[in-house]
Specification:
CATH architecture: Roll
Helix content: 10-25%
CATH superfamily: Hotdog Thioesterase
CATH topology: Thiol Ester Dehydrase, Chain A
Distance between the termini: 19 Å
Structural class: alpha+beta
CATH class: Alpha Beta
Strand content: 35-45%
Number of helices: 2
Length: 148
């Protein structure tokens, strides 16, 4: 299984009154990593894979330990834990080599912007997603699965 690696800078404005990165800011970090991940899934041949749109159906976040501001970026690892006909689940860890700050997952639904409705995952998209599928089927919450 491959994991997508995203290096996320921390911003001074990300902190809360207690000097930690605010819990809501972690959603933005996940979004940055997810967008980077999804656009890299599209092959370089001009394929429209996932470029037509997608929507978030659900987020689940476990805050493991506080993250304080510093100048070095934090690493966000992303991988696929579930693929169904019309959705996928991406799991994440926001971490440093020695510790994990957040474990999370997001359910994504491919969306046809022109028709303003969800669409099915194409065979090409599924093939690309499978290269990032967790071999054990475990997501950040331990509930991943592959659904045909």
């Amino acid at each position: 299984m491959s994991r997508h690696i995203y290096s996320c800078p921390l911003r001074w404005s990300d902190m809360d009154a207690f000097g930690h990165v605010n819990n809501a800011v972690f959603l933005r970090y996940l979004e940055e990593a997810r967008i980077d991940f999804m656009f890299r899934l599209a092959p370089g041949d001009g394929s429209p894979s996932f470029s037509g749109g997608s929507v978030v159906a659900r987020h689940e976040i476990d805050y493991v330990r506080p993250l304080v501001h510093r100048h070095s970026p934090v690493t966000i690892e992303s991988w696929v834990t579930k693929i169904s006909a019309a959705s996928l689940t991406i799991s994440y860890e926001i971490k440093d080599p020695e510790q994990v700050y957040v474990r999370a997952s997001t359910i994504i639904v491919p969306f046809n912007l022109e028709a303003q409705r969800p669409r099915r995952i194409t065979a090409d998209e599924k093939a690309m997603l499978l290269t990032y599928m967790d071999d054990d089927g475990d997501d950040a919450a331990g509930t991943g699965a592959l659904v045909a």
